């Protein structure tokens, strides 16, 4: 059975900060990996021409580094997703789902500080309903430095991962790929820095018994043992 993995990122760099190591590992194991990018920097949205050009170059470089099997872009306005009817975003996401038929989906954590992350989570989970997308078997929420740790909602207990992936062999790939987004990174202790990414990976490794890991909140899992011989 061909397994298609889809990572959904509200903004370019979320996919790398959140799960670059896991995606690279899955690619090495023979999975098809796909990328759905929801927003786009444009001059109409208030970004400079040079910023828009640089971001497009970064996306192309990242796409090449990951060797994604496909890249889909919805080209919505960043930091404005809550202005769109949610049903419209769900429809756009579902069209991508039907092209890819992903078995595993990675999406941002709903209670991140950035409202775009919340909207994307809601749209993706709606598109993942079993009667809409029966091919989706697992959904994971990933953490995004500078957004997840600042999602300080009183009613939320915080990001409490229950699934871990050993990325010791993939750590350098994650750090090097992150640096492609140079405009978004700063010096430690800025959360979007290679030092911060490494520290978090080490902490998640401590939690899961390896040198470096990425952590996820498993949202949905269907028929996990179907592929095990004899069951």
Write the layout of secondary structure elements.
Blueprint: E1 4-9, H1 14-28, E2 32-39, H2 49-66, E3 70-76, H3 86-100, E4 104-108, H4 115-127, E5 138-142, E6 163-166, H5 171-178, H6 194-208, E7 213-221
Parallel strand pairs: 1-2, 1-4, 2-3, 4-5
Antiparallel strand pairs: 5-7, 6-7
Short description:
This protein has 231 residues and is α/β, with parallel strands linked by helices. Helix content is 36%, strand content 19%.
Describe the model.
The protein is built from six helices and seven strands, in the order βαβαβαβαββααβ. With 231 residues, it is an alpha/beta fold. The protein has helices at 14-28, 49-66, 86-100, 115-127, 171-178, 194-208; strands at 4-9, 32-39, 70-76, 104-108, 138-142, 163-166, 213-221. Strands 3-2-1-4-5-7-6 form a seven-stranded mixed beta sheet, sandwiched between helices. It has a single domain, classed as LmbE-like (Rossmann fold, 3-Layer(aba) Sandwich). The mean pLDDT is 94.
Strand pairing plus helix content: what structural class? Answer: alpha/beta
Classify the helix fraction into a percent range.
Answer: 25-40%
Q: Count the helices. How many?
A: 6
How do the strands of the widest beta sheet line up side by side? 3-2-1-4-5-7-6
Give the name of the CATH superfamily. Answer: LmbE-like
So, CATH architecture?
Answer: 3-Layer(aba) Sandwich
Q: What is the C-alpha radius of gyration, as a whole number of Å? A: 17 Å
* Portion in strands: 15-25%
The CATH class turns out to be Alpha Beta
Mean pLDDT score, rounded?
94
Tally of distinct domains: 1
Instruction: Determine the CATH topology.
Output: Rossmann fold
Summarize the biggest pleated sheet.
7 strands, mixed
- Find the count of extended strands (DSSP E, 2+ residues): 7
- Give start-end ranges of low-pLDDT stretches: none
